[in-house]
Amino acid sequence: MYATRYSKPKNIEEAISALQAAEDGKLLAGGMTLIPTLKQRLAAPDCLIDLCAVGLSGIAEEGDALVLGAMSCHAEVESSADVQKHLPALSLLAGGIGDRQVRNCGTIGGSIANNDPAACYPAAVLALAARITTSKRTLSADDYFTGMFETALEEEEIITKISFPKTHKASYAKFGNPASRYAMVGVFIAKTDVGGLRVAITGAGQDGVFRHSGLEAALADSFDVAAIDAVDIDDSELMSDIHASADYRAHLIKEMTKLALQAIG
Ligand SMILES: Cc1cc2nc3c(=O)[nH]c(=O)nc-3n(C[C@H](O)[C@H](O)[C@H](O)COP(=O)(O)OP(=O)(O)OC[C@H]3O[C@@H](n4cnc5c(N)ncnc54)[C@H](O)[C@@H]3O)c2cc1C
């Protein structure tokens, strides 16, 4: 047993103060990753700072963008009429995450803060050239993801919202792990005014989510399933683990790209 304090700040300033006052404080969002980490003694923070009352929920339209509060849980994103209308691919992605409990507790902010290499949201954030606003600044998706479980977030920096461009030209296809539903390979294709044509891949890269330049170039030439067969997927930097070899993941990348493309139509 070790002692841990629980803090429930009412606004972002109080949350930052609580982080600064703690020796090793941890922000708590949905707890879907953090609580198992604590149970396994992989982390032992002296203070848990719960973000549930800080006011980071809510989904709103802001001009050409959809803005999701960091504490929006996956079930809210899935069922949001605004997301279904303006960014249906994101609603479908959220509805395919984990199980009902995970979708009702896990949050988009927690997901991209954690940046699990098999998580779904990082692919959407990168492909849609989303912008991540924190308590300190706004970051582009390109600058935000820096490696497996690594992001540009600094100490005492809290994600407050994520801003996505509205588009119907987007689609996500995932080959999920049959037990957890995490992506063994997930491919998000998007065409937006801000980011152009992008193909972002999760579940496969040794450094976490990444864009595939070969697939992007092929689809820029011809936005057609036939264009994908000619693309070489180099497996030398793909993950190999008990779930799938790098070679198999390379195969899945092509297949998931085809499925995602067919869904865009
Ligand atoms: C059984 C299971 C299946 C899952 N399947 C999938 C899946 O198919 N696809 C998928 O994408 N994900 C999946 N997940 C992950 C899940 O969806 C959550 O997104 C993830 O666990 C983290 O979100 P959370 O809100 O629970 O964060 P927490 O566990 O509370 O926090 C995770 C980390 O993020 C930090 N953090 C949280 N919020 C913020 C913030 N606003 N600013 C800065 N740092 C913050 C915390 O301090 C902590 O370090 C699965 C999880 C489980 C347990």
Q: So what's the overall shape?
A: globular
Q: What CATH first level of the largest domain would be assigned?
A: Alpha Beta
Small molecules held by this entry: flavin-adenine dinucleotide
Tally the beta strands: 14
How are the strands ordered across the major sheet? 4-5-10-6-7
Whole-number total of structural domains: 3
Write the topology of this structure:
Layout (H helix, E strand, L loop, with lengths): L4 E3 L4 H10 L3 E4 L5 H6 L7 E4 L8 E4 L2 E5 L4 H6 L1 H6 L1 H8 L4 H6 L2 H7 L6 H7 L3 E4 L3 E3 H4 E3 L2 E2 L7 E7 L4 E7 L6 E10 L3 E7 L7 E2 L1 H9 L4 H4 L16 H19 L1
Parallel strand pairs: 1-3, 2-3
Antiparallel strand pairs: 4-5, 5-10, 6-7, 6-10, 8-9, 11-12, 12-13, 13-14
Bound molecules: flavin-adenine dinucleotide.
Short description:
The chain is α+β, with helices and mostly antiparallel strands and 265 residues long.
Written overview of the protein:
By secondary structure, the protein is an alpha+beta fold. The chain folds into three domains: 5-50, Uridine Diphospho-n-acetylenolpyruvylglucosamine Reductase, domain 2, CATH 3.30.43; 59-165, Uridine Diphospho-n-acetylenolpyruvylglucosamine Reductase, domain 3 (2-Layer Sandwich); 170-264, Enolase-like, domain 1 (2-Layer Sandwich), CATH 3.30.390.50. Helix content is 35%, strand content 25%. It has helices at 12-21, 34-39, 74-79, 81-86, 88-95, 100-105, 108-114, 121-127, 141-144, 213-221, 226-229, 246-264; strands at residues 5-7, 25-28, 47-50, 59-62, 65-69, 131-134, 138-140, 145-147, 150-151, 159-165, 170-176, 183-192, 196-202, 210-211. The protein has a five-stranded antiparallel beta sheet. The protein has a four-stranded antiparallel beta sheet with strand order 11-12-13-14, with helices on both faces.
